[in-house]
Amino acid sequence: MSYNKKLKILSLIGAIFSLCLLMPDLLWAGEYLNSAHGSSAGAQRLTGYATGNCAHCHEMHASIAGSEPDPLGGPSPYTLFATNFNSGTSLPGSYLVADNFCFYCHSASTSVQPVANKDYSATFGGAATGVQSIMDAFNQPSSAEPNSYHDLAGIHTFAEGKFPWYSADSNPCNACHNPHMARKNYEDFLTPLSSAISKPSDHFNLWGDSEDNTETMATYSRYEAPYSDPISKKREPDGASVSDGVVNTGQGWKTPDYAGFCLDCHQYAVGSLLVINWGSGDKHGVVARDALVGATSDTSLDGRNPYEAVDHSTDNFVLSCLDCHEPHGSPNIMLLRRQVNGESVDVTSLDSMANLCARCHSSNWEYIHHLSEDHPYVKQAGQCNDCHAGDGGFPIFCGKCHFHGSDDSWVPIQKTTPPRKTF
Amino acid sequence: MGLKKLIWIWVAALLGAPGLSLAKVSGPCVDCHTMHNSQGGVSMSYLDSGETPFSSPNVIVGDDVAPNQALVRYGCVGCHTGTNSLGGAVPFVFGPLTAEYGTNTLAGGDFRWVFDGLDGSTKGHNVIDLPGVPSDMAAPGGAMGAGLLTCAGLNGCHGDGSDDQFVSIAGGHHGSGGSTLLTDTTKIYTSGSTADMSDAFRMLSGIKGIEDDDWEYTANGTKISADHNLYSGAHRSNENLITGTISALCAKCHGDFHNGTGSIGIGSAWLRHPIDFDMSTLAVSSEYDGYDAYSMEAPVAVSSMSSATDLTAIDHLGGRGAANGNAIVMCLSCHRAHGSPYGGILRWDYKNWPGTGTNGCAICHTTKN
């Protein structure tokens, strides 16, 4: 080998080595350092310790240098600086900081390290800022009916009986979040996603961060991201502009498969909640829509954009649970979002559920049910009161027939046989 | 067989068992002892803080004093102050000015950093024998008050607990206790005697262990080298005090960190970091499966040892789903015994991680990186 050739090879090796040295530390950072808690903007309870240091959450000997920093209270499970979850005393909807270890930081009223967290509607949905912290999200006053929050004690009980890794001393927040892995997903929509969630059945891995998008909404045949701003056609989750009528898969790649995630628990009967069958039970899920009463070409949703513009190019849309629901809590009932498809939602009772449905569907309910080409129910003189009398009314409350797993068996006369799926 | 042959056999046998004398101090008696505490009319004894025989120049000025017990010229600090070097005969634990952590410090670390002040209270054990050492800190997790801790004696770590430091370690330097390993004659197994300090690991009464020949001046945790101490531990399924382990010794002053109902949380969620707990019992799928070799940064103890122990045959494996007794978390997994440059006498720069510090936690907590 000639001297020049040797020199070239050595130079190449040197250049590669030099480039390696220049590569960012992040390449070698582990799951924790990439997490929200371990990052350079992470946990910082104590002075004198680097941001993200274990000591901000854990006191290895229930003390540091011979004394216990605030908050006091002696040793706590998992060497945490305070009790993990107070299942016996915490009151759903009225949580206190001391009820939940996470609230020592994820609360606007804490003195430890207040962390600002907006709700999903504001973070991804374009809504005006609402609550400022996770604890506040759980504590929102419900106008009419209770239970518009994930019941932490209920999660605690359910998870302890279902998931082997979850113990009596675990924190219900950890059912969905692994604190050593969860990332700030609103800051990074690259692939793989910076996901904040871990399936309870797979706690030690993030969910939504797959390189091949099998854990994002793009895994479904058709996920159409809702608007975060209908005027400028901005879409969730990151506000990218996507024109109406353009088949949109990019936003699905940026959205964790929340359906797959939530079903980890909600495929079961959790408390008094309905079992969710997103795969074969709901048209908002994977089930294709149907066309009835002699429909020829109009199998439309009678929807609104961005769905209407691409309605005829698909026989179904698969929604993300978080297209309609908040994960932590909401001022609306049933954890319904404050803003859906770029418009505000005010649902304080079952009677006002149409405020939600009309964000994506035309609100001409008579046309949809009786006049459109694929109307499901014939409008016939003398039969109106079969449905509209009594508590039916005009229009009939959506919730009579439309809810997870529903069919039209409520309809007195014109119900189909077998009952057709109505959600 | 003639007498000459027998004598040669005896000589050969004696030469073949040199390890029996490894534990003993060697060298001229006058290095440590004075017969009359007088040389040319001048006292030969010094306080612990006094002139030291092995450091040059001496950095601590002490006063001549009355005779010490055991005819020794110096106390613990006096003899054990100096700069370690390869092949050194004395383990120095107080390195004047030149202590470089991990370079010329030994397994226990060095008191240099607690002496230096600057948050020094937490960088070493606050032994009052050391001049100027902060004595403002009581033992966390226990009842030992501030300003009491000594190297040996009633309030010390070394020795049999006798009130006087010299008495408590009597026999430790010259006794014949301990036995060389069958497989590595440079190392000594001590059975943890409470009566014979030469048969107790580092003269720690009741503690068994295997001593490295140079006290880890050179150290290598790889299985093939196994150039390190071997500490005694135990696997517990309750919070009871257990004896004979290196961590149990620490518990004498830091009891809450080792045992007591509601102190540790064995059997439920940990309330404090587990000690005397075998990581090998943890699930194969757990992150502790990543602890797959002895780490000099975060070493582990073993539950069984004898003079027949072969360190190069031990697999220190965590996360095996069943106890192998060779991956036991101990106090010394995270801490040095004497002193380190880091708060809490930690083995690594914990406070500055992430960043410039070191994530020693990840040696065991392998996914927390």
Indicate the topology.
The complex is a heterodimer of chains A (423) and B (369).
Chain A: H1 3-22, H2 120-123, H3 134-138, H4 152-162, E1 227-229, E2 234-235, E3 240-241, H5 250-253, H6 258-266, E4 339-340, E5 343-344, H7 354-357, H8 365-371, H9 384-388
Antiparallel strand pairs in A: 1-2, 2-3, 4-5
Chain B: H1 3-16, H2 76-79, H3 112-115, E1 150-152, E2 156-158, H4 165-168, E3 179-180, E4 188-190, E5 209-211, E6 230-231, H5 246-251, E7 277-278, E8 328-329
Parallel strand pairs in B: 1-2
Antiparallel strand pairs in B: 3-4, 4-5, 5-6, 7-8
Give an overview of the whole structure.
The complex is a heterodimer of chains A (423) and B (369). Chain A contains nine helices and five strands; from the N terminus they run H-H-H-H-E-E-E-H-H-E-E-H-H-H. Chain A has 423 residues and is an all-alpha fold. The termini of chain A are far apart. Chain B has 369 residues and is mostly loops. The termini of chain B are far apart. Chain B contains five helices and eight strands; from the N terminus they run H-H-H-E-E-H-E-E-E-E-H-E-E. Chains A and B meet through loops of A and loops of B.
Question: What does this entry show, briefly?
Answer:
The complex is a heterodimer of chains A (423) and B (369). With 423 residues, chain A is mostly helical.
Question: Main attributes?
Answer:
A: 423 residues, mainly alpha, 3-stranded antiparallel beta sheet, two-stranded antiparallel ribbon, 9 helices, 5 strands, globular, B: two-stranded parallel ribbon, 5 helices
Weakly predicted, low-confidence segments of chain B: 6-21, 56-61
Low-confidence stretches of chain A are 15-28
Radius of gyration over C-alpha positions of chain A, nearest whole angstrom: 25 Å
How many strands appear in the DSSP assignment of chain A?
5
Major sheet attributes of chain A: 3 strands, antiparallel
Distance, first to last CA of chain B: 68 Å
Structural class of chain A: mainly alpha
Beta content of chain A: under 5%
Q: Gap between N and C termini of chain A, in Å? A: 74 Å
In spatial order, strands of the major sheet of chain A run 1-2-3
Mean pLDDT across residues of chain A: 88
Average pLDDT of chain B = 88
